[in-house]
Every structure is written in structure tokens, then in C-alpha cells.
Write a structure and sequence with these properties.
This protein is α/β, with parallel strands linked by helices. Helix content is 26%, strand content 33%.
């Protein structure tokens, strides 16, 4: 299957008191079912791009793997929407929590799935990384400029991982957590240390996004939007610097401000 994050769709548009038929770009939604050691593990609804990175990042964030070497074989059949993963070890998770559980692309009750392994896999950041205020503004501007797919569809989340100066990689997905898993998977594949990296994100910093950032291992998360109160509490507990409302040359620091300098 050709990787396409969006496709053309004929729609009816109402504008200036008229109905017209126009061609529009619509975000692609794709279900990918994972089998781990021949056992059905989960189905992720995602954008059909960078799927191997998504699988690696998802399994790592759920504590199934710690490194690329934990996977003996990975076979992606994206024409049918399946990925078969063989580990170098037994699957020790209680699969009753995972089997056939849908991972939704939107915000909702299906996200309770992540609470199964959050306590075991969330990490307290130990980084002493600092970044300058003008670098924060610059990185968010770069993320916005890179988000061509969002501009076309209006239906995608965008994220990037950076050393505080330049992006390592930028990824988009209909699911905000999927975009972060793709970044995590890229770092695993490329053997990039994550501890001193910065996560730049287009959407709201919810508790699930803050937990995902802690699972990845970053100590700083930047967003153009706002955090929730629970996300701020978790950021304090997990020693993560959360910065939001990065817009028009200003931003708010919600936790651990010592990492942000002039």
C-alpha cells in the first residue's frame, strides 16, 4: 500500500450563498492490528505513514520492548493492515488487558488502555538540559512551517523531536499519541539517545500526552496549546518542563522553569 496521509475527496462546499462541488484533501484513517508472538495484541487507528516507527514506538512506550534488539522479526503487511512482531523473549504482559482492545485516534474513554502500564513505564526525567527562550519560539515556528499536511486537511497532529536547536525528525498523524510514537520509534531505529531531547507538539498537553512524553524519556515538552491541570501535576511529579501557548513571540511555563533561560 502506498503511504498516503491524505487523499482527494469530492465534497459540496457552501460559500457566498452558493453550493459548489470542489476537490478537498481528507486525512486518511487506517486500522493497523498488531500480533506479538502470534498473539493479537492491539489495533491502532492511525495515519498510514512510517508504520514501522509507529509500531516500535508504541511497543516501547507500553514497556513491551526496551530497544530494537528486543525484536527478532517484524513483518508489516500494510496492504491488509497487519503487523506481526516476534520478540526475542516471552510476552510477559497480562494480555487480558491488551487483546483486541481498540486504540482510538481521538480523545475518549478508549484511552484508559494506557493506564495498564503507565505506572511501570513512565520515567522521571533526570535531564539537566536547558534551552533559550528564543529557541522555543523558533522551534514552534519551524513546526508550524513543516505542517503542510495539517494545512491541507486540518485533521492531523504534528510533532517533532529536537536537540533544542534543530529537528531530528517531524511526524504527523490523525492520533496525537501516534505522532509521538512515530518519533519514539524513529529514535529507537536510529539509536538516538532521548534523555536530553526536546519534544515539540501541536496540540493540547493532556495527561496522556504528558505520560507519553515521560515514557519516551524527554524532559521538556513544548506546545502551541494549553496543558490540563492533571498534566501540570504529572509534569511536576515526573520532573518534566511543560511549556504551552507558544504563540506570537510569547509562552507560558507551567512546571520546572529552571530549564528555560534567556
Amino acid at each position: 500500500m502506498k503511504e498516503e496521509i491524505a487523499g482527494h475527496q469530492s465534497i459540496i462546499k457552501y460559500q457566498n450563498n452558493e453550493f459548489t462541488t470542489v476537490d478537498d484533501m481528507i486525512a486518511t484513517e487506517f486500522p493497523l492490528t498488531l500480533y506479538v508472538n502470534r498473539e493479537e495484541f492491539a489495533t491502532i487507528v492511525c495515519s498510514p505513514t512510517h508504520l514501522q516507527e509507529l509500531v516500535l514506538g508504541f511497543l516501547a512506550s507500553e514497556g513491551v520492548i526496551r530497544r530494537r534488539a528486543d525484536i527478532q522479526d517484524i513483518h508489516l503487511d500494510d496492504s491488509k493492515g497487519f503487523c506481526h512482531i516476534t520478540l526475542t523473549k516471552e510476552l510477559t504482559h497480562n494480555t487480558a488487558h491488551y487483546s483486541k482492545r481498540m486504540i482510538s485516534s481521538c480523545c475518549g474513554k478508549s484511552r484508559e488502555f494506557y493506564f495498564v502500564s503507565d505506572a511501570a513505564t513512565a520515567k522521571v526525567s533526570m535531564t539537566d538540559k536547558t534551552i533559550k527562550a528564543d529557541e522555543i519560539i523558533y522551534m514552534m515556528e519551524q513546526l508550524q512551517q513543516s505542517s503542510t499536511n495539517f494545512k491541507q486537511t486540518g485533521g492531523l497532529h504534528n510533532a517533532a523531536i529536537s536537540d533544542g536547536h534543530d529537528f531530528y525528525i517531524h511526524r504527523s498523524d490523525i492520533g496525537r499519541h501516534n505522532a509521538l510514537d512515530k518519533l519514539y520509534g524513529y529514535c529507537i531505529e536510529q539509536h538516538i539517545p532521548i534523555r536530553d531531547k526536546v519534544l515539540i507538539f501541536s496540540g493540547r498537553i493532556s495527561s496522556e500526552i504528558l505520560i507519553k512524553a515521560s515514557k519516551i524519556g524527554v524532559g521538556i515538552i513544548l506546545s502551541k496549546s494549553a496543558p490540563t491541570d492533571l498534566a501540570i501535576k504529572l509534569a511536576h511529579d515526573l520532573n518534566i518542563t511543560a511549556v504551552g501557548f507558544i504563540r506570537n513571540g510569547s509562552f507560558n511555563i507551567y512546571s520546572h522553569p529552571q530549564r528555560i533561560v534567556k
